[in-house]
Amino acid sequence: MTYYPIFLKVENRRCLLVGAGSVGVRKLKSILECGPESVTVLDTSGPGPEMAPLCLDSRVIFEQRPFDPEDLEGKFIVFACTSNTEINRIIAELCYRNNILCNIADFPEGSNFIVPSVIRQGDLTIAVSTGGCSPAFTRKVRQDLENVFGPHYAAFITLMGRIRPMVLDLGKETSQNTALFRQLVASPILDELEAGNMDQVNELLAQFLPDELVSHIPELTDDLI
Q: Which residues in the chain are classed under CATH 3.30.160?
């Protein structure tokens, strides 16, 4: 099966997680990173030692009870991670009928999306998937990429995020802005950030940035590394 790659916005959305075991813990951690309004967690047992600290988050609503179809009402996304295959498949079928995004831990063919392995460095997010064919190989690729995309990538993206609005506010032609952004990306700035050479980063910015922005370089590079 070929999946359509997409990054989903769950900010301020209501989510449902059924099953509070080790898989549920991993899913909840990843959801909470993305700013949901709330995550209702259901399990017939109380929260375990890994789940309990996560339940201290005000967005988490833990209820020790079985799943009920009414739990799907108003939910944007659902994760079923119970050890009961039948319950997981019932949830998958109900979500399908109600056009709700659903991921079933042990039933990828019944899910309407799968969760890739993710590398994060600040605002840089890299998702890796083998379409469910080999999660073990997906993990290997992720580990390989983690050795390449270090914290300096996060610093560079933060820098570009600060530069971009300042450049756009100058009101120059789109073609000029595009050329500038490409020059910055192709420059040695990323390498200098990796090496921790902030003086050299500042010199490169003074070389590439419009004259109007040179005085802003100290604030652009403040606390990058």
A: 116-149
pLDDT of residue 34: 94
Beta-strand relationship, 60-64 and 117-121: unpaired
Ranges in the chain, pLDDT < 70: none
Distance between CA 113 and CA 111 in Å, rounded? Answer: 5
Whose tokens are 């952004």? That residue is 181
Q: Please tell me the class of the 1-115 domain.
A: alpha beta
pLDDT of residue 132: 77
What CA–CA distance (Å, rounded) separates 206 from 198? Answer: 12
Topology of domain 116-149, CATH: Double Stranded RNA Binding Domain (3.30.160)
Q: What is the pLDDT of residue 104?
A: 92
Predicted pLDDT of residue 114: 86
Q: Is 27 exposed, middle or buried (0-12, 13-18, 19+ CB in 10 A)?
A: buried
